[in-house]
Design goal:
Elements (H helix, E strand, L loop, with lengths): L1 H15 L1 H31 L4 H32 L4 H6 L1 H5 L6 H35 L6 H25 L2 H28 L3 H13 L2 H12 L2 H6 L2 H4 L12 H23 L4
């Protein structure tokens, strides 16, 4: 059970890192500012006393749920990049793992223990942040998305995809190169989505669709986010903003995750960490 020992020490290490504490403090401040902003918006609406106030609040709640969840998606991804880019490579560069490896621990246990610790911390962070935002929205507007559980699960899968890519990268590349490659792939996919929206408006473009599909295969997080946003918005709201005509906007999606993409995500999350374990097992430290 060496992986449990590695996971426990990794959890302690994560909590002691200043960047983790800084992100937690900033997250609490962000939730507080979001609460004040939404409270001011609702108070101004109540003072105006518009017709169909309850319906208007539900509409605002649905919009805020998507925007807040998009913020959660970005924050969770940024947290994953900052914490895990040097999961293995930073300790290899510092010479720490050269001391640990001769112990009665298999190298696979070291990688799995670290992956598990980061997955638990980042998964908990994503869940707390998402439920915190949605709780504030429900408190002020009365809107609670029916697809909340599905959206949260998709957000967690998006985080695990990025973690999987960083795991295999950290076992193979220097820390800076690993973080840079993961960040570029993470940013390139929504840019390809935006290009696809433009071509949907001006005319079909098979080339752009293929490029977008390629980027989604390399980094599925954006496809998972679009499916999560579709789960957060009721069908009435999707029809109102014309999502079914455009299918996907750069931020909001109208389509659920396809079975083929779901299978690819499952393979991505499992296979890449296994490749990282295999690479680390044969790497000269």
């Amino acid at each position: 059970m060496g992986w449990l020992v590695i996971a426990r020490f990794t959890l302690k290490e994560i909590v002691r890192r200043r960047i983790f504490l800084a992100v937690v403090v900033l997250t609490v401040l962000l939730l507080g500012l979001f609460t004040l902003l939404l409270n001011a918006l609702v108070d101004n609406l109540r003072q105006a006393q518009p017709e169909n106030m309850d319906l208007l609040l539900l509409g605002i709640g649905a919009l805020m749920a998507v925007l807040a969840s998009w913020s959660v998606y970005l924050q969770s991804s940024l947290m994953t990049l900052l914490l895990t880019a040097g999961m293995l490579s930073a300790e290899i560069e510092a010479g720490t793992l050269a001391v640990i490896v001769p112990k009665p621990l298999h190298r696979v246990e070291i990688v799995f223990g670290k992956w598990l610790a980061y997955a638990l911390v980042l998964g908990g962070y994503t869940a707390v942040l998402e439920l915190g935002f949605l709780g504030v929205i429900y408190w002020k507007t009365g809107y609670w998305p029916d697809g909340m559980a599905q959206a949260l699960g998709l957000l967690e899968l998006g985080m695990l995809c990025l973690l999987a890519l960083l795991t295999v990268g950290s076992a193979s590349l220097p820390t800076l190169a690993n973080g840079a490659i993961a960040a570029l792939l993470f940013l390139a996919t929504p840019i390809a989505s935006f290009a696809q929206v433009v071509t949907q408006i001006t005319g079909e473009s098979t080339t752009v669709d293929r490029i977008k599909t390629l980027f989604e295969l390399l980094m599925p997080s954006d496809a998972l986010w679009h499916a999560a946003s579709a789960a957060l918005l009721p069908p009435v709201a999707q029809d109102l903003i014309g999502l079914h005509q455009v299918q996907n906007l750069p931020i909001i999606g109208a389509e659920a995750l396809t079975p083929a993409m779901g299978l690819w995500v499952a393979l991505y999350i499992v296979v890449l960490p296994l490749l990282g374990m295999l690479r680390f097992a044969h790497r000269d430290l």
